[in-house]
């Protein structure tokens, strides 16, 4: 799957891929986070490169659900693979409104309870198991199709994963970015706080996937620092049933094709080795 926020709003995916390539290689498209009202996002700077990683502080810039449904979703659906809409709300009621709006319009929802770049909602949900229980339970009553919850890598992660399973989520996405900080200028001190993604986080998220997939029965979707078929295979061997590619898309929008090809080659190699031994 292409991870939320790392391939634009989907308006120009076919500039980079032939439709056939999308259908043959991409399991689902997870949209940029969508909120009830339009959001301008945070003021710049919003992006900072670190060795092997990226700190972003976009702040869920998006046109709001009405405009998204009218001008973006039809285009994303036209690519012919399942569309999972990533939802962002500051309150449970907003998630419920968004779920209502999308009934019959998308193949799945991914509830973002883990964005580190916003003042309300986002990461704060991830520390509060009661709120997450209520959120998943109430969205489940409205939304009968595929429902995933995107977890934060910080906070009571195992408890939150178990709650998602208990209240009816079909899968958890492990995980969003890690709260991080970069120093931009020394004097006066200027900093950027945001979420760290990319290869730097892979060993951390891989461990979370490994541990969480032992604790719950619903599928874990691994997401964190995947840039190669080997990375993807490691996630699958550590318990993930599917995976998402995020930051790597910003470097090479076609990277998912390369990852899938490498993964197929590696799996063929593994399968031949175990057959011959
Ligand atoms: C520029 C950027 C924007 C993102 N926007 C969202 C978003 O809107 N909603 C969300 O749930 N995750 C968002 N993410 C998080 C990614 O979907 C992904 O979970 C995270 O970057 C870890 O995966 P990666 O290391 O492969 O990038 C964003 C990440 C980046 C780099």
Give a structural overview.
The chain has helices at residues 19-25, 65-77, 92-102, 129-142, 157-166, 202-215, 229-237, 248-251, 255-276; strands at 29-30, 47-50, 53-56, 83-87, 108-112, 146-151, 171-174, 178-185, 190-197, 220-223, 242-244. By secondary structure, it is an alpha/beta fold. The protein has one domain (13-41, 59-179, 198-276): TIM Barrel, CATH 3.20.20.70. The strands form 2 sheets. It has a 7-stranded parallel β-sheet. It has a 4-stranded antiparallel β-sheet with strand order 2-3-9-8, with no helix packed on it. Helix 3 runs parallel beside helix 4. Flavin mononucleotide (FMN) binds next to strand 3.
Task: Offer a concise description of the structure.
38% of the residues lie in helices and 19% in strands.
Features:
277 residues; alpha/beta; TIM Barrel; seven-stranded parallel beta sheet; 38% helix; globular
User: For the report, how would you describe the main beta sheet?
Assistant: 7 strands, parallel
CATH class (first level) name? Alpha Beta
List all distinct small molecules, including ions and cofactors, that are bound in this structure. Answer: flavin mononucleotide
**Span from first to last CA?**
33 Å
Fourth-tier CATH superfamily name: Aldolase class I
Q: Identify the CATH architecture.
A: Alpha-Beta Barrel
The helix/strand series, from N terminus to C terminus, equals: HEEEHEHEHEHEEEHEHEHH
Structural class: alpha/beta
Number of strands: 11
The outline comes out as: globular
């Amino acid at each position: 799957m292409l991870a939320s926020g790392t391939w634009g709003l989907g308006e120009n995916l076919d500039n980079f891929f032939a439709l056939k390539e999308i259908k043959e290689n991409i399991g689902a498209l997870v949209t940029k986070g969508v909120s009830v009202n339009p959001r301008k996002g945070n003021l710049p700077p919003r992006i900072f490169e670190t060795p092997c990683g990226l700190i972003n502080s976009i702040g869920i810039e998006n046109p709001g659900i009405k405009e998204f449904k009218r001008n973006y979703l039809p285009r994303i659906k036209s690519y012919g693979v399942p569309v999972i809409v990533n939802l962002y709300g500051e309150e449970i009621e907003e998630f419920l409104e968004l779920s209502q709006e999308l009934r019959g319009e998308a193949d799945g929802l991914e509830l973002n309870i883990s964005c580190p770049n916003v003042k309300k909602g986002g990461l704060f949900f991830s520390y509060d198991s009661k709120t997450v229980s209520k959120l998943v339970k109430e969205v489940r009553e409205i939304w009968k199709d595929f429902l995933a919850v995107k977890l934060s890598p910080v906070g009571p992660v195992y408890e939150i994963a178990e709650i998602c399973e208990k209240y009816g989520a079909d899968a958890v996405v492990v995980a969003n970015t890690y709260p991080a900080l970069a120093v931009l200028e020394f004097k006066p001190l200027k900093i950027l706080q945001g979420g760290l993604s990319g290869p730097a986080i892979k060993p951390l998220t891989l461990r979370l996937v490994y541990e969480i997939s032992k604790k719950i029965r619903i599928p874990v979707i691994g997401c964190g620092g995947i840039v190669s078929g080997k990375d993807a295979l490691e996630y699958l061997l550590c318990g993930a049933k599917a995976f998402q590619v995020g930051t790597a898309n910003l470097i090479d929008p076609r990277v998912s094709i390369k990852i899938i090809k490498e993964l197929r080659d590696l799996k063929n190699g593994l399968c031949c080795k175990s057959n011959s031994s």
